[in-house]
Amino acid sequence: MKCYVCAKQGVDKDAVAMCIVCGMGLCMGHAFKEELLVRDVIDWGFGEERIEYPKTLPRFICAECKLAREQRIKVTRSRSQT
Predict the structure, then answer these.
(1) Integer Cα distance of 60 and 18 in angstroms
(2) Closest Cα to residue 59, out of 47, 51, 46, 69?
(3) Residue 74 confidence (pLDDT) above 80
């Protein structure tokens, strides 16, 4: 598989990852690595306990999907602050 972004620019580079959102092939220069938190909510019957585990899940994302996700986070945060 080849890097889609490089191919659009006329460059032939192998992909080393796939975007977790859109599935685009990405080279090292176009892949962003993010860590996803692993969380649980346990209902004990008398209340909930929220657990955040120390190990994270790695994921790769392209620049376009990263920008789209970040704009969503900004809107969500601004709404929660009002």
Answers:
(1) 7
(2) 69
(3) no
Within 10 angstroms of residue 22's Cβ, the number of other Cβ atoms is 12
Task: Determine the pLDDT at residue 5.
Answer: 96
Query: What is the residue extent of each domain of the chain?
Result: 4-80
Condensed to tens digits (0 to 9), the pLDDT of residues 27-49 reads 999 999 999 999 999 988 888 99
Sole residue written with tokens 């929220």: 50
CA–CA dist 43, 13 (Å, integer):
49
Say if residue 30 is exposed, middle or buried (CB neighbours under 10 Å; 0-12, 13-18, 19+).
buried
Mean pLDDT for the chain?
Answer: 90
